[in-house]
Amino acid sequence: MSKKLPTRQEDYSLWYNELVKRAGLAENSAVRGCMVIKPYGYAIWEKMQRQLDDMFKRTGHENAYFPLFVPKSLFEAEEKNAEGFAKECAVVTHYRLQTDPDKPGKLRVDPNAKLEEELVVRPTSEAIIWNTYKNWVQSYRDLPLLINQWANVVRWEMRTRLFLRTAEFLWQEGHTAHATAEEAVAETRQMLDVYAEFAEEHMALPVVKGVKTPNERFAGAEDTYCIEALMQDGKALQAGTSHFLGQNFAKAFDVQFSNKEGVREHVWGTSWGVSTRLMGALIMAHSDDEGLVLPPKLAPIQVVIVPIYKTGELDALIERIRPIQQGLIARGISVKLDSRDTERPGFKFAEWELKGVPVRLAIGARDLDAGMVEVVRRDTKEKMSLPLADIVATVDQLLVDIQTNIYAKAKDFRDTHTTRVDSYDEFKRMLDEEPGFLLAHYDGTSETEERIKEETKATVRCLALAEPDEEGICMVTGKPSPRRAYFARAY
Questions:
Q1: CA–CA separation, 131 vs 78, rounded Å?
Q2: Which residues contact 475 (CB under 8 A, 6 or more apart)?
Q3: How many whole angstroms separate alpha carbon 475 and alpha carbon 460?
Q4: Which segments of 64-168 does DSSP mark as H helices, in order?
Q5: Which of helix, strand or coil describes residue 340?
Q6: N or C: where does the chain have the smaller number of CB atoms within 10 Å of the terminal CB?
Q7: Which residues does residue 288 pair with via DSSP β-bridges, in sequence order?
Q8: Which among 225, 215, 233 is positioned nearest to 442, based on CA atoms?
Q9: Per residue in 26-60, is it b (16+ CB within 10 Å) or e — as a string?
């Protein structure tokens, strides 16, 4: 193996970047600001995608696909949305290249191939989708319209970090249309719950469900709901959003329906999405100085078996190990039998530890003769010698225990790094000395929110749905405050 990873304590940002690369998750590409997701990283994303897709379909949604390009006139139809994304848009202006007469062997943009109307590469798909919905919705019988798409989007970023912020990223975006505001709000809240369930049950990531302030709201939405998670460096990460769009897009694109009384009305909309940013959350919430720590439900390889052998013994040993491998596979467990004869066991141990495989079995002929197996769990690094006779059932249960333990550890970290503060001085001190979620009173104005952000780099992450109303005094202005908000510095 190459030299050890930088530690989280030494340099958290460098630790993260090195871990993403060395664990074979992703790497920078020839296109500035864009990444290549490597097979091991994509395998994790596929497991996320498969689980979320099942959850969407259980709640009545169907998948479709819409164009990558959005005509500029459509994009600017909903003004707040267009203004919110304008600075991040990549724009196609020409449709052809030609040989450069001044530079043999080179190409240039054909000056005569200018598009009549520029095309925006989608930063989000509301415009193209709502323009399509105009043709799909005529009557109350066409509602609700519950559509999701898995896609890539482009938001031009100059300061990038693998998975967390790249110019192009993968995501899903749900876009739904409803007959009433109440139905649309219920959909918005339901999808927030789906995201929270996925994060907690599958990513082993505790989240705070809440609503964004107007300053942090999605451009074009009436309300934005979110799930917020805490990373091991005390910074928050927005892990998913669900937006109640009101009738803003329906009016911008004239999406109307005839209600049961025959009266024409504009529909009510929602949109909701999570992206490959979840990969960043998974890495930063659980991993350690030796490498990834993956929750078993999302690990591409849940169990790795490393044969311990002497020269000439490998083939015979593998034949004896096969029944164990097959028994685990029969339980639905993904197993890798590392039969490479080019690497020593110590190298393999370190490699699979780096890749975060939840359970490692080291098996030699002597172990099998004695009816025992050496088992190491990745989350605690505990090494056990366990009976061969029960090994399949034992490992199956161990994976459940590891999933539970990883969540419990992350929740304990989140809980011990969530602090109620009452003064602005204490607020600033905590951000620097003990970063995490800070629950503090502020007067609810955009001006105070901007001041706090400017002076401390902390933002209101959300007004938590579970946080009760509590009369207090704004820590900055001394004005009345009806409840505490979750603040943190964030990714």
A1: 11
A2: 421, 422, 423, 424, 427, 440, 441, 442
A3: 13
A4: 72-75, 79-85, 126-136
A5: coil
A6: N
A7: 291
A8: 215
A9: bebeeeebebebeebbbbbbebbbebbeebbeeee
- Contact, 369 vs 317, CB < 8 A? no
Mean residue pLDDT across the chain: 97
Q: How does DSSP classify residue 359? A: E
CA-closest candidate to residue 287, choices 388, 205, 170, 198: 205
Confidence at 253, pLDDT banded by 50, 70, 90: very high
Rounded-to-integer distance, Cα 242 and Cα 189, Å: 7
Nearest to 274 by CA among 332, 205, 371, 344: 205
Q: Residue 93 class from Cβ within 10 Å (0-12 exposed, 13-18 middle, 19+ buried)? A: exposed
Count CB neighbours of 275 within 10 A.
21
Q: What is the dihedral of CA 70, 74, 77, 79, to 10 degrees?
A: 20
> Residue 358 contacts by C-beta under 8 Å, 6 or more apart in sequence?
294, 295, 296, 299, 302, 303, 377, 378, 379, 399, 402
Residues 179, 143 contacting (CB under 8 angstroms): yes
Give residue for tokens 């949305």.
Answer: 81
DSSP character string of 198-244: HHHHTS----EEEE--GGGSPTT-SEEEEEEEE-TTS-EEEEEEEEE
Q: Sorting pLDDT into bands at 50, 70 and 90, what band is 2?
A: low
Distance, in Å, from the CA atom of 243 to the CA atom of 141, rounded to the nearest integer, reads 24
Cβ-Cβ contacts under 8 Å for 87 (sequence gap 6 or more): 156
| Tens digit of each residue's pLDDT (9 = 90 or more) over 54-104 | 999 999 999 999 999 999 999 999 999 999 999 999 999 999 999 999 999
Phi, psi for residue 475 in degrees, rounded to 5: -70, -20
3-class secondary structure, 346: helix
**Closest C-alpha to 144, from 108, 185, 105:** 185
pLDDT at 252 over 90: yes
